[in-house]
Write a structure and sequence with these properties.
Distance between the termini: 45 Å
Largest sheet: 5 strands, mixed
Bound molecules: FE2/S2 (inorganic) cluster
Helix content: 25-40%
Radius of gyration: 15 Å
CATH topology of the largest domain: Ubiquitin-like (UB roll)
Structural class: alpha+beta
Strand order of the largest sheet: 2-1-5-3-4
Number of strands: 5
Length: about 150
Amino acid sequence: MSITITTTINGKAVSAGAEASTSLLEFLRDTLEYKGTKLCCNTGECGACTVIYNGKPINSCVTLAADANGAEITTIEGLADGDKLHPVQQAFIDTGAVQCGYCTPGYIISVKALLDRTKKPTAEEIEEAVSGNICRCTGYNKIVDAIQLAAQRL
Ligand code: FES
Ligand code: FES
């Protein structure tokens, strides 16, 4: 059964059809062409597909597109201001926290959600905020450095 989903993505009103079983990740990537949100495990384990949903980070692979109806969603494409990267994006670059980059959009979205909640996160809050994100390349220390640098700059 096809349904119409009306939602707000990165501040823009969007309306498009989806099957009732379509995941929010499929809706974003395949229907709306927001390819920055990554598909990896597709089972809610790795955080590559993280988006901000009504202010909270969620795994879009295990969320139905239908749940986006009436919601406000932020994807990685919504962070930069024209050519100017968001401070979290810039901090990931400046600290070398990006290697293959596949996990990076999910991390950056989780960190943005954290820093929207608190400008001075504790080490525990940082650990908790990215506990659902997996990186296979960086060894994590540089990601923590990036989060701390972004917090200082915001
Ligand atoms: S792709 Fe969604 S949590 Fe891994
Ligand atoms: S930078 Fe490669 S998985 Fe994180």
